[in-house]
Amino acid sequence: MSNNAEMRQKNFQSIQNPEWRIDDSRIPYPDAVSGMEARVADIRGGTASELVWLTEHDPLYTAGSSADASELLTPDRFPVFETGRGGKHTYHGPGQRIAYVMMDLKARSGGKGPDVRGYVHALEEWAILTLARFAVKGERREGRIGIWVDLGGGNEAKIGAIGVRVRRWVTLHGMSLNIEPNLEHYGGIIPCGIQDFGVTSLAALGHYVTMPEVDMALKETFADAFQGFGVSG
Known about the structure:
Layout lengths: L2 H11 L5 E4 L6 H17 L5 E5 L4 E4 L16 E3 L6 E4 L3 E7 L13 H17 L6 E3 L2 E9 L2 E13 L2 E9 L19 E2 L11 H15 L8
Parallel strand pairs: 1-2, 3-4, 9-11
Antiparallel strand pairs: 2-6, 3-5, 6-10, 7-8, 8-9, 9-10
């Protein structure tokens, strides 16, 4: 290994784990977006650490970069926010844990180059490992974004959403997990543009857990999910 490669590897292994922020109250969506953007700018400028931000919002719909207006079925029901993340329309509301992750993919590349696909895979793995803590088997589906559960009898439902934006190799947005939201609120959109499958939650599956319990599971599984990005336990 060359001296430069050794130095890159040493720097990669010495990166500190991200800071964690956990909100006890709901945060207005515009404040969350502006907070993420400011933090990403500071990360790029070397004046702030990476951040994992667990929060919750009042009911709203967001439209990703590939959203189709026809998939917003009731545009006056809740506030609708256009966002720079990938994907289509999704719902955020009480009883859903939002995990915003601001991570420097270039700094964590170990000299191999930023790996956006690997990062998305790690987000999915994080959701899957967290759900497993509550005896729920979350799964990926080829050609379908998000995390899914098999309901039996050929039926499936989505329990977690993934939406990512990358700015100069620093990530914004992240994922959401349905803990105990009002699933009827999803009726105002075609979630992620997928009509043939429904949505579910831990509560709908018979697993009643508190948000602090979910937060603890998210913290405990993060290192395993992101070990390929130099995160340690």
